[in-house]
Amino acid sequence: MRARxxxxxxxxxxLSLLLAAVPGPSAEADRGVTCQRRGRARRVRRPxxxxxxxxxxxxxxxxxxxxxxxxxxxxxxxxxVLRPVRGGSHTLAPAGPEGGFEEAALALAAAALAxxxxxxxxxxxxxxxxxxxxxxxHFRAPWVHxxxxxxxxxATSRHAHGRAIDxxxxxxxxxxxxxxxxxxxxxxxGIYPVSGxxxxxxxxxxxFWTDSSGPSEANRERPVLRREWARADRDARRRGVEPTxxxxxxxxxxxxxxxxxxxxxxxxxxxGEGALPPETSDEAGASEADEAGPTE
Length: 296
Prior knowledge:
By secondary structure, the protein is of the alpha+beta class. Helix content is about 35%, strand content about 15%. Strands 2-1-3-4-6-5-7-8 form an 8-stranded mixed sheet. It is elongated, with a radius of gyration of 28 Å. The termini are far apart.
């Protein structure tokens, strides 16, 4: 009996040795599968920018020198200085201490927001100019980097109707600028964290979004702060602000205008509005802020 028991023990021991010699999934293999899975997940990642584009974004957000701010504040009231990234500078003098811009100043705004390729201009909605001016006074920014203004490519885009601007304020993070703009009411506010600017437009009902697309990429628009849309408009109406009619946008959509604005009548900008300007414009948009350090 004991001999038979020993035989069984030896057989079990030999079987265990045989099983141990058979290759199986190891910790290294497990880590490889995990890395492979993570590798697939990493394919959807933050878009890459060229070194020139990264430098341009840092430069536009750099804080203006104190001397430039002091010189700007020395004017009463301070002017609205628009600096397109393609080059040049346009100074708009307000009509009074609280703002307001006459036809000559609005014509300068149209020139500053002209299409960069052919210089085509479109009259700019006065309230849009007023909002940009309110922003520079609120943040004490002596100039505005105009990333994009008039774009005639899509009749359903507010850029094609002189009602939208993509811009940056020196020394002001895009998050702070967007947070301020959302409170103005009857506006579309989009933040583009990769391309590095804020979109602002005027409209009938507010709509807020974020878009993580980079240059030459399909838009990745995502609505945000839905509960704030109607609240911002109610507060603005209490302050006496009137919405900007979207009849022209609806008419363009009904007639089959090119481009499709997301979000229906409360739409933001057309897909693809997050594209950066050509790299050749990076150096043209340089200013006194070039040597200042980047902001947050």
